[in-house]
Amino acid sequence: MSDNLASKITDSELEVMKLLWCAKDALPVTAIREQLQESKGWEPATIKTLISRLVSKGAVLQEKRNVYYYSPAITEKEYSSWATKDLITRIFNGKASDLIASLVNSDGLSQEDIAELRDMFKVEE
Amino acid sequence: MSDNLASKITDSELEVMKLLWCAKDALPVTAIREQLQESKGWEPATIKTLISRLVSKGAVLQEKRNVYYYSPAITEKEYSSWATKDLITRIFNGKASDLIASLVNSDGLSQEDIAELRDMFKVEE
DNA sequence: TCGCTTAAGCTACAATTGTAAACTGTTATT
DNA sequence: AATAACAGTTTACAATTGTAGCTTAAGCGA
């Protein structure tokens, strides 16, 4: 994913992306509005603005039917792995293992997390 | 670290923080300026603004001597572990292991990283 | 067919951020 | 002492972000 795509997804916009990622198919504004209006307390106009901005920046595709249907142009995995790499670059001087070390040394991991990780790296072997 | 501290350190401000974290002692503006002016191409005025904003938001302390000397009010570890948790909350729905899984599955880790991690979780045992 | 609802597009506006100049007072140098 | 240089403070200004209203046109129910 290019820097000028994901880097520009803001916090509010991300809420819209999350919704679209959950949906199996493209959604009309109505469906998006229904969910975000309650969960986020946003006005319809706000939601429309966020969608428009996401379309402009190429993070969401629109497909013309009766009304427009919207779907993500990038997958959640693409985005999250981009965001992770971005964090590593900006904060951990490019060292991924420093990120994980930081997690391990700062009660950032639950017991289950640690168990999962142990498995993960056992299997790798 | 409280949310309203670290969350507000912006990208440009972070460059100043990094410099202060590297320094063993508090630094006067002169020293900060010398390093950032060249590496970042910032005007002295820009650097002063960033320092002021960091002081206002409590991320940097100033100590009056002849001129002010500036030092970080939060450690790099505090900040980076806050930033990591923030990423996990915002993007990985609070699951730290999802972050690591994403790293593992997206060529985000070098061979050395993986070796280090294997050690990390071997030792944990 | 006539409104009502609402999608789509345009405009708005305050807060934050990136970047920096202007002003003011102090210090160091000649 | 006069001046240059610069720290500290205030102000500036455009771009981005969060939040939302207004207008226009179209579809849907009575």
Question: How would the blueprint of this fold be written?
Answer:
The structure is a homodimer of 125-residue chains.
Chain A: H1 3-6, H2 11-22, E1 27-28, H3 29-40, H4 44-56, E2 60-64, E3 68-72, H5 76-91, H6 96-104, H7 111-123
Antiparallel strand pairs in A: 1-3, 2-3
Helix pairs in contact in A: 3-4
The structure holds a DNA duplex (30 and 30 nucleotides).
| Beta-strand residue percentage of chain A | 5-15%
Give the radius of gyration of chain A: 18 Å
Structural class of chain A comes to mainly alpha
What is the residue-averaged pLDDT of chain A?
A: 88
Query: How would you write the strand order of the largest sheet of chain A?
Result: 1-3-2
How much helix is in the residues of chain A?
55-70%
| Tally of DSSP helical segments of chain A | 7
Oligomer: homodimer
Termini distance of chain A? 30 Å
Tertiary shape of chain A: elongated
Quick one: which chains have the greatest interface?
Answer: A-B, 40 and 40 residues
